[in-house]
Design goal:
The protein is α/β, with parallel strands linked by helices and 353 residues long. It has 6 helices and 30 strands. It has 2 domains: 216 residues, Spore Coat Polysaccharide Biosynthesis Protein SpsA, Chain A; 108 residues, Hexapeptide repeat proteins (UDP N-Acetylglucosamine Acyltransferase, domain 1, 3 Solenoid). The chain has a 7-stranded mixed beta sheet with strand order 5-4-1-6-11-8-12, sandwiched between helices. A hairpin with a 2-residue loop joins strand 2 and strand 3. The chain is elongated, with a radius of gyration of 21 Å. It starts with a strand and ends in a 5-residue tail after the last strand. The chain binds guanosine-5'-diphosphate-alpha-D-mannose (GDD) and magnesium ion. The site of guanosine-5'-diphosphate-alpha-D-mannose has 26 residues, from strand 1, helix 3 and strand 11.
């Protein structure tokens, strides 16, 4: 089976993190989100994926190339101007002639693809949409379904009072290739606003898969930091860290090549990426990610924060409840609090711990 990854969104709500890279490439605990999604697909037996790109498409292609480093086969379809989710699916038609999986690329979740596909096969539907239940569904696609779990209505970002359902589209689908015949080509189409309601109107069967495990979209800074807290504390297994954690239960993950000085203080949960260095007298954690090749210098503190790759925290500096993007240097003895920090611009008001 193959999967289509919708990865063309701009990620405006994640700025300033997405100034230099597209939303699906923001790191989730040391690796791009899209990479973690592809690795999870691979471990479910899906080893061929098509990535639908638009905003900063070259960034994605340069990173994954044809998938050789991850041991999967990757194809690309790119849009010069955004075609919407439906238009992007239609654009990838030539790659799919059998049942296939489609994913939004801004979701951190433990959805079990094998279960979902098996469920889809049992429902004899043109599409199966996985659903999760949320307290406030207004920013999502909201689904009503019958007692046999066939969808009755799909309302994208409904107005208050339009529906009582708290079951929302989790952005993970299984489609039959017949769906391509129901999406017009060469125009902007939203699969959520146009295609799903049209399929229901025409009497197609669409199945609803109720998912009860961990699910979060990382579309805003608050949710991006929450996803990290949940992954680090073990609330979700999206990053598959369970086999890297020592039996003592101390959630400290140190990747290969990393150097932690014996006189550094590490308070889990903490992730220290490949070839990162934590020097003497530094304090790291709790709820902290030190990205690959990053350096935490003598007597500095990194608490409740996410450092991307190649970050330098200079001597005596303090980084608290913040995200620092790749290649930034935090000056000696300076303090960064509750901030999404890039070299050019920063946004205050973050809350990780
Ligand atoms: N190629 C391409 N072209 N991809 C796109 C385009 C486009 O024009 N527009 C959006 N995407 C990709 C985004 O990169 C993202 O991975 C996915 O499609 C969904 O777009 P978002 O912009 O993240 O949509 P949303 O968060 O407002 O709503 C969607 O996700 C919710 C769950 O998080 C909808 O699918 C909702 O129904 C759903 O509940
Ligand atoms: Mg989204």
């Amino acid at each position: 089976m193959k999967a289509l990854l919708l990865a063309g969104g701009k990620g405006t709500r994640l700025q300033p993190l997405t100034y230099k890279l597209p939303k699906p490439m923001v790191p989730i605990v040391g690796r791009p989100l899209l990479e973690r999604i592809i690795l999870n697909l691979k471990s479910s037996g899906i080893e061929e994926v098509v990535i639908s790109t638009c905003y900063k498409s070259q960034y994605i292609k340069n990173y994954f190339k044809e998938g050789q480093d991850l041991g999967v086969k990757i194809h690309y379809v790119s849009e010069a101007t955004p075609l919407g989710t439906g238009g992007a699916i239609k654009n990838a038609e030539k790659f799919f002639d059998d049942t296939f999986v489609v994913l939004n690329s801004d979701i951190v979740s433990d959805v079990n693809y094998r279960d979902l596909i098996e469920y889809h096969r049992s429902k004899n539907a043109i599409a199966t949409i996985s659903m999760t239940s949320v307290d406030n569904p207004s920013q999502y696609g909201v689904i009503e379904f019958d007692k046999d779990n066939y969808i009755k209505s799909f309302k994208e970002k409904p107005k208050p009072g339009e529906t009582d359902s708290h079951w929302i589209n989790a952005g993970v689908y299984v489609f039959e290739p017949e769906i391509f015949g129901e999406i017009p080509g060469k125009k902007v189409v939203s699969v959520e606003r146009d295609t799903y309601p049209a399929l229901l109107q025409k009497g197609y069967k669409m199945a609803a898969y109720q998912f009860y495990g961990y699910w979060l979209d990382i579309g805003t800074l608050e949710k991006y930091t929450k996803a990290h807290k949940d992954v680090l504390s073990g609330k979700c297994n999206f990053c598959r860290f369970s086999d890297k954690i020592k039996e003592s239960g101390d959630r400290v993950i140190v990747e290969k090549g990393a150097e932690v000085h014996p006189q550094a203080e590490i308070i889990g949960p903490v992730y220290i990426g490949e070839n990162a260095v934590v020097k003497s007298g530094a304090r790291v954690g709790p709820y902290t990610v030190i990205g690959n090749n990053s350096i935490v210098s003598e007597n500095s503190k990194v608490i409740g924060s996410i450092l991307w790759d190649n970050v330098i925290v200079s001597e005596g500096a303090e980084v608290v409840s913040s995200v620092v993007v790749s290649d930034c240097c935090i000056d000696s003895n300076s303090r960064i609090f509750h901030t999404a920090y890039t070299n050019d611009v920063y946004t205050e008001g973050l809350q990780l711990i």
